[in-house]
Model the fold of this input.
Amino acid sequence: MEIINVNGVRLAFERRGTGSPLVLLHGYPLDHHLWDDVAPLLTDTFELILPDLRGFGESSTVDSFYTMEDFASDIAALLDQLEIQKTAIAGHSMGGYVALAFARLYPERVTGLGLISTQVLADAPDRKEGRYKSAAEVADKGIASVVETMTPKFTSNPQLQRFARESMERQQPAAYIGALKAMAERVDSTPMLSSLAVPLVIVHGDADSLIPIDRAREAKAALPNAHLVEISGAGHMPMMETKEKTAEALKRLA
Done:
């Protein structure tokens, strides 16, 4: 991986393929390896930029509170160093929240937006409270309970559950804590999307037990021009569970 310093953090990333740029942002609490299965299906169409978001994978973090906008600023700074002015950007789960923040802050830099197993709404009060409770638990007891709780919710596929568990276990507690608080404080992105005049692709599995597919259908209802791909039987990891369908959808951002 390559590493650069941006916004006080060490940001790790990979570049693969040739073509128009596409940034792929992993979800919580994973890293860029989430895209390893689908990336080979995209490298003939895109120059892929695969960062580890701050705190995750080989990227460092900070102790102070940060937001989705700070994650997005990291990506903008990375693109500046790579001399990429405009790009398509797609995010999985929390990565989708970062992609939405990027589109809100830098609309002139976005050529297409992909939302995979994510949602555009802010947290309801009870969900927000739950994230802060989880952050406090991680600070007090470590990540073990989060790993145990989340592993079966990612997918029903035992092999991919092992991947998710191993990926979660690689991450530092500080990354969990920072990301949970940032997710809790994110804003509703629906108003921004209604004014975003670029291709928008939504990919969601109908067996997703972490973010129900209803969230994707609601986004599509609010954004008639969006292209919604519902994947039968897929859970929260369609880029691994159904990589061909996910790749086909993402190619609409080229």
